[in-house]
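Lab channel / #folding
Pinned by the channel admin:
"Please post every new chain as: sequence first, then the structure tokens as a reply. Keep commentary short and put observations after the output so the thread stays searchable."

First post following the new format, from NK:
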Amino acid sequence: MVASEKAKARIRSGRTSSSVPGKGPKPSSSGKNGPREVALRLAQWNAKAEPNIREILLFPDKRGEEIRLVEVDPTALPSDEGRLVPFYFAPDPVNEIPLWSAIAVILPREKGKLRLPKGWGKWDQAEIIWQRKARK
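Reply from TO:
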């Protein structure tokens, strides 16, 4: 996947919000395309594709312009930088993802310990949006 120049600039600058004021429609705050609903859909898709994911956290974006997910997966590679480094994905209107999304995958032991990107808040502000049920 080749990232756009805008996405590359966002990643290099560490910016976590990519919407340009006045450009394009703002997603609804409720309904199937509200930020939380979009985040839940992404979490469910990712958990279905990756059976080792134990839980997925949603970090709030007060502006409602970006979905911020952290997937906890015991098979992830460890962070060697001591900070959370998400991958950024552009909006995907075809799949009803009207927002930028930032997704990071971490080991269970890293949860609550890695430095978060600027603007993400604190670990205790995250919501567990999806959790795998224990196998019997």
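NK: Residues 35-49 form the longest helix (15 residues).
TO: also worth noting, Strands lie at 55-59, 66-72, 87-89, 100-106, 127-131.
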